[in-house]
Amino acid sequence: MIGEAADLFEPRSEVRPTVLEDDLVGVLEERVHRLVERQRATQRAVSEAREAVATRDRRIVELDAKLAASERARAELVRRIDELLADVDRLLAAADAESAAGGGA
Prior knowledge:
This protein is mostly helical and about 100 residues long. About 85% of the residues lie in helices and about 0% in strands. It has helices at about 1-10, 20-105. The termini are far apart. The model has no long low-confidence stretch (mean pLDDT about 85).
């Protein structure tokens, strides 16, 4: 910061020892203008970075919601498969009991 401030007031190499007041004002105006432009560019960069972070955060929320929905759907599918397997087991057990009863008669 101090270095930047010192750069503002460093004399140009072509400046003569007897600098006219208009030259000094012109140099200062030019340097202030450059600083203002750098500040504006920095503000634009910060705004763009904030927008990018906000977009990323929204995307994270969307992906998190999709993941949660996927996990719920997976849990539901596992539950249904377990129920179907239990039904198959009951049907097999009933078929075995029927064949055992039919074979023993």
